[in-house]
Amino acid sequence: MTIAICVCTLAIQTAASRMMFSMARDRVLPGHGVLARVSTVTGTPVLPAIVVGVLSAAILLVNVGEASLFTALTSVCIVMLYGAYLLVTVPMLIQRLRGTWVPQPGHFSLGAWGIPVNLLAVSYGFLQMVNLAWPRASVYDPAGGHWYLQYFSLLFVGGSLLVGLVAYALHRRELTTDVPAPAAAAPELASA
Q1: Beta-carbon count within 10 A of 75 CB
Q2: DSSP string across 115-144
Q3: Does the structure show a pLDDT above 50 at 186?
Q4: Pair 76, 152: CB distance under 8 Å
Q5: Pairwise CA distance, residues 130 & 172, whole Å
Q6: 17 CB neighbour count, 10 Å cutoff
Q7: What Cα–Cα distance (Å) separates residue 167 from each residue in 61, 83, 174, 175?
Q8: Is residue 118's pLDDT more than 90?
Q9: Comparing 36-45, 68-77, 91-100, which segment has the lowest mean pLDDT?
Q10: Cβ atoms 136, 150 nearer than 8 A
Q11: d(CA 47, CA 32)
């Protein structure tokens, strides 16, 4: 059991570090200049791994003296995972319904089952997200001492969306103006 927990923890830290590095590389995180650096010695992004480790330890410190926070934190993590899942399955379903989803030749395809399976995936993800985020005092705050624990998932998701919208608004101009335009075809190549 201990080995499984260590392996899962390492996998999650690795995934979070890669995500932080790739977002910093795309210049969408505060401090992206230092977070996107790669060590010349190891060839790896060291700072994102350190930041993820420190943030993880800080989240664990929240649990000291308030064990019910751990339930709220784990629940909101799962809610956010289902949200990320929906950010992939919903656009795919929209493309399928519009008829613009075209699988690449030689790649796996569900064929005629694509829309029903995709619809089932979206429905399941949405229902699970609602089920886990539903503010139930019996689950999130059984002692009844903290109103915010009952609504923690909704507050966290709402806060995350707000922070994301503010960050997007602040960096939107930078993201759209710094992207080089595709080079136009040379006239002699266009007529060929």
Answers
A1: 18
A2: HHHHHHHHHHHHHHHHHHHS--HHHH-TT-
A3: no
A4: yes
A5: 30
A6: 21
A7: 27, 19, 11, 11
A8: yes
A9: 68-77
A10: yes
A11: 11
